[in-house]
Amino acid sequence: MSRWIVSTVPPWLLLLGLIVIISGGSVLLALLLRKRFPRITQDENSDALQFGYGVIGIVYAFFIGFVVSSMWGQTNDADSLARTEGAAGVQLARDASAFDQADGDRIRKSLLSYERAAETEWPMVARGQSLPAADNAMAALYRTFEELTPRTDIQHTFQSTSLANLDTISQSRTARIIEGADDGGPTWSLWAVIFLTSGLVMGCTIVYGVEKRSIHYPMVAIVGGMVAANLFLVLELSHPFAGDIATSPTAVRMVVEALDPPPN
């Protein structure tokens, strides 16, 4: 469900919707509670809530910070994987010049076919799927290097280096597909804890006794906006290959541009 949300809903609309629902709903609930229970703002209630509010706020801040940091690291790992794949592809394109003209042209042509297929495949990776055309292009690229007949020691060296870079590209692609297949976002138990701690924070903010409504309602709205922003971050960072913060195919495009530069 979270993958569908971040893949379908524009990030600005998702953030705005969360703020409206959480902040607006909290302010409305605070208004209704004050009308129904006017004694809620008395000192004895405020004193009882003050300690609990402080503890819950600290626990919530620590927990959400840990979750966001962990998911941010997951996204950074996916970015690093894509950069490694792109760097290996660019190096492969550059090393093609070490071979004879005909062999170098074959390498560039096969590599370009694969990189274009990989770029087309990229959106499918978020669902753990692969593109058959990319599989075929990768197999053809391996055959191209296996069929090379190096004439010099330098070409032998470049052939070995190129095969190592090709292995890096293949392994990075496989890792992306596996990660996309395993990426289900936070588990239901984790979502339950996130919603529980967020609800406790908002509940304490709503009930916390501040007599002046001009101070209380803005405070509820501000805390609601903070909780909404945290939920937005958790959603967007849950899937490293889906959403606006997701890893992009920029590295793959750089290899395509190195092989087929746009006309001036």
Which regions contain 5 or more consecutive residues with pLDDT less than 50?
Answer: none
Structural class: mainly alpha
CA-based gyration radius: 27 Å
Task: Quickly count the domains.
Answer: 1
Largest sheet: none
Shape label: rod-shaped
Mean pLDDT: 85
Strands, count: 0
The H/E string reads HHHHHHHHH
Number of helices: 9
Strand content: under 5%
Distance between the termini: 45 Å
Compose a concise summary of this entry.
The protein is mainly α.
Describe the protein's topology.
Layout: H1 2-8, H2 11-36, H3 43-95, H4 101-125, H5 132-146, H6 153-182, H7 188-207, H8 213-237, H9 250-259
Descriptive report:
- The structure is a single chain.
- This protein is an all-alpha fold and 264 residues long.
- The protein has one domain.
- The protein is built from nine helices and no strands.
- Helix 2 runs antiparallel to helix 8 and helix 7 (188-207) packs antiparallel against helix 8.
Observed structural traits:
single chain; 264 residues; mainly alpha
